[in-house]
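Entry 0007
Protein: Zinc metalloprotease
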Amino acid sequence: MTTLLAIDWTVAGVKTLQFILSFSILVTLHELGHFVAARIFKCRVEKFYLFFNPWFSLWKKKIGETEYGIGWVPFGGYVKISGMIDESMDKEQMKQPPKPYEFRSKPAWQRLIIMVAGVVVNLLLGFFIYAMMLWHWGEEYIPTNQMTYGIAADSLAQSVGFKNGDKVVSADGEYIDRFSKIPLAVVLNSAKTVQVQRNGQPVNIVIPEDFPGKLISYKDINFIDIRVPLAPIDSISGDTTAAYKAGLRKGDQILSVNDTSVAFLNDFRILLQHNKNKTIHLKILRGNDTSTVQLHVPASGMIGISNGEPSKFFQVKTINYTFLESIPAGFKKSWETLVSYWLQLKLIFSGKVNTNESLGSVISIGKMFPSEWDWQSFWSITAFFSLVLALMNILPIPGLDGGHALFTVAELVSGRKPSDRFMEISQMVGMVLLLGLMAYALGLDFWRLFK
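Output (structure tokens):
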């Protein structure tokens, strides 16, 4: 119970609201894809629901032939199309002769379009969000050769030979301009070596074969980060933050934590994470005077201070896009995201990663959102999950869109339609597996919370 009581409910509330809004957008538009395609081919749609509604609905209203509603189980949503074997498992309807407005009476090519329409919408949505983000905010990154203070290496990175302050030169002998892509080169492209400069001397770091699996098990593929100096506090996010309550103010320079000198932001964050739910002593410099303050570190490990923009410390490269330029750039970013996620799935399926450590439910997804409302982060995460939702749904698993599409493609090729009984059993098996997987993932997340 101690862990649960220590949750920062303000942070949890902000993350939850962002998750609900993002998930609602993704699910609603996914199901809208099925709905529109079904209506184009004159199929009757009986229900359109955001979230599942076993036993009762939070809200519902019938308009025309369709009942629109909001369920209470936030694991997805659905449209119930007449004459289709789906989550509802409406066997009584399937016993009746096919009617012209039913899904099962339509040609196979129309049924295939209806089934993949949701996936197509999610692909287009992810691409659209990325393109509009690039058009509105542009793209900023710190070139690898401009990292004045080198890297901050976590414990796993240090275990293979990286050290704080190393300056990355190349991966497998190839210079990578965007530092953020170096961890991906190691994890996804299986880079064998990383070349760094240490104290002016070249050092070749050999990456073990099992390192990518360890990183994903560790839940963080960013094993090296940009080393940033701990500058005077640039801003404090509000008067309810731990920093403000402790008496810290804009312009204060933090010198030490519990008498341990700290010069870099990365080291300061590590010390905060190691002292969650504890009171620490900070030595600060304010003007010409030094003093000590006591600060209680919340369960999140975040105290509400900003170090300032990266441009204060580094030469930041900015790419601005016109509307027309943002379209191919958004497509490229979407494709790279899909390839990256697919390669991560391959790592999991290959057995190199412990599934128990990689699997998560809506709780894990919700934690990915920032602790403060940030529209740029919100849309970035929403675009990512839109593409992930498309990729996961097209997998040829019974119960998912990809399973239905697979059977329809087989029908187009063979000219033989699977029997209703076969489709019922396949749907039932698929739903049992998927619900079991969701329950297992949720159980893992609750276990991690208590742990």
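Curator remark: The chain has three domains: 2-135+383-450, 144-226, 235-310. The longest strand covers residues 73-81.
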